[in-house]
What does this fold into?
Amino acid sequence: MADTRSIRVKLQIYCGDEIAMGPGKADLLDAIAATGSISAGARAMGMSYRRAWMLVDTLNRCWDQPVVETFAGGSKQKGARLSLFGHEVLDSYRSLQDSLDWKASRGFEQELLSLLRDMPLPGK
Amino acid sequence: MADTRSIRVKLQIYCGDEIAMGPGKADLLDAIAATGSISAGARAMGMSYRRAWMLVDTLNRCWDQPVVETFAGGSKQKGARLSLFGHEVLDSYRSLQDSLDWKASRGFEQELLSLLRDMPLPGK
It folds into this structure.
């Protein structure tokens, strides 16, 4: 049976009561960068346009400079891309996430995971 | 104006598709240990008894040994306490959490936080 035990680290950057960056926003930024628009990025994430727009709005209100830039495209649809500043923020967030994942996979992890069952017992 | 920028690390231990330990379950275990019952622990957390019971059920199905033990009390209400094994799991989880918080507060943090506004701009 495959071993299903794992540790996941979720990193959230707060600015006031707002989450300025977290796993969902980071994935949305990747999707916007890959697709070239907020609506296509939202679709790729299985997220409503409204929700994606609100996340982008939060990003742009929390960070010192715009993270996502929109621009008029050739069609009716506006295009969007990450600013250089946005790439810097995203890269820095991913680097911190990676270093924490690495840290979590050392030391305590083996001790803690060894106390888990391979799979949960079935629910009642 | 107070600086509202911060980084929070959430640590989730998975067993299959179930979260065997995370911030909410760890806090519930503290509350059960402090109050001596699942229902009082749930109340202290502002959580329904049903929800607390389900979290305890998940805990006990995921870990190698029971984490929470229930026992008949003097009244109609059953008592509950953490097993020695449960204390070991909780302590180990908290230690890993602390070491990751410490790690997150070094190095990258200053770089990343310096890019945030002190407070988000107001929403539209």
About this structure: Chain A touches chain B through 49 residues (CB under 8 Å).
